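Deliverable D5.2: sample structural annotation.
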Amino acid sequence: MVRITYVEPSGNAVTVNVAEGRSLMQGATANGVNGILAECGGCCACGTCHCYVDPARLPDLPEPTDAELAMLDTVAAERRANSRLSCQIKASAELEGLVLVLPDRQT
């Protein structure tokens, strides 16, 4: 299990354990984290699992695919340099303690 902290739009921080290999979107939705809609179920087709990754931890993540970058162009909240789709990030030991901030809106 990998400990991930999600900062909900309200500012409430929720720390959950996500099984290795599961997406961070799945970890959030399975644990009732507010702020991720996941309308497409994790297919990189809707942009409603947009999150902001702690900039210091970006090097720990795999590079975004072209499909993820294209979908990030459609997100409802401001796209930033540290924007990612949580459905495209798999929990791994390297991500232990990662903090994701969820935007104020997904649609």
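Annotation notes: The two ends are 30 Å apart (CA to CA). The longest helix spans residues 24-30.
The annotation will be released with the project's public dataset once the embargo ends.
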